Amino acid sequence: xxxxxxSLPAFAAFAGPTTLWLLVFFLIPLGIIWMYSFGENVxxxxxxxxxxxxxxxxxxxxxxxxxxxxxxxxxAITTFFCLVIGYPVALVIATAExxxxxxxxxxxxxxxxxxxxxxxxxxxxxLGTQGRVNGLLEWGWQFLDGGAALxxxxxxxxxxxxxxxxxxxxxxxxxxxxxxHLPFAILPLYSAMExxxxxxxxxxxxxxxxxxxxxxxxxxxxTSAGLVTAAIITFIPALGSFLxxxxxxxxxxxxxxxxxxxxxxxxxxxPFGSALSLFLLYVTFxxxxxxxxxxxxxxxxRRA
Length: 304
Known about the structure:
By secondary structure, the chain is mainly alpha-helical. It has two domains: 66-117 and 165-303, Orthogonal Bundle (MetI-like fold), CATH 1.10.3720; 130-164. The chain contains 14 helices and two strands; from the N terminus they run H-H-E-E-H-H-H-H-H-H-H-H-H-H-H-H. It has helices at residues 2-6, 8-36, 54-59, 62-95, 101-109, 116-127, 132-150, 170-194, 198-206, 210-222, 224-239, 243-248, 256-265, 270-303, and strands spanning 39-41, 47-49. Strands 1-2 form a two-stranded antiparallel ribbon. A hairpin with a 5-residue loop joins strand 1 (39-41) and strand 2 (47-49). The two termini are 26 Å apart. 21% of the residues are buried.
């Protein structure tokens, strides 16, 4: 602590611009939103801070509460599939030859080089009723139907192919969310596996543990920190997703961020929109606080 105090001018020169930026563009706007959440509209353009809790009470009304739980459900399902898909992918990258690892990581990071809006519109083309997925399913249906006709089973698969509906459904939204957030799950999982002491895995195999038992009893527990990190940094952004459910949900599968957007842009109810935004922020802080407390307890346990 004494080192930076002895060099206070130099420390201020480096920390001052960052602190000023956070104050002006983060803390002050957040404080304004916080005050709006305790206010009410007195005209079309004026909000008066009356310190009412009515906006927060409205969050627990059945319609909003149901919407919030749907948001949590979709974010949890997204996180689950990101972990299930991302874990073996991260394992493949971590165990690949050294010359291939940069190229495999590059493939994972390539989506970050393309704007999210463009990628989501690409998903519209893929998941639409006339999209690529339904085109592939229709081709498979025609192939199987033609094979059935050859053996005298005409009409086994029905008269015509009925496209699967993805857009405007929770399934389509989850597919889009998994597509967007999968890299966020793979990277921390890969980092945890890259730091792993492989001798534990070799010892388990030498002692007859087998691949499946070694995977679940040795590898997964040793990479649990990476799993938790991947779950958190996948769940929290998915919880606040706006663009993906807006485009893929077609207004029929709203998440909480879509309602917040409508409060500010269409309903002109900034106090309620502010309360919803901050409630989402409170939930995020609680999740991060729980993770920090668990990490502190684990660190104390290791020192003991």
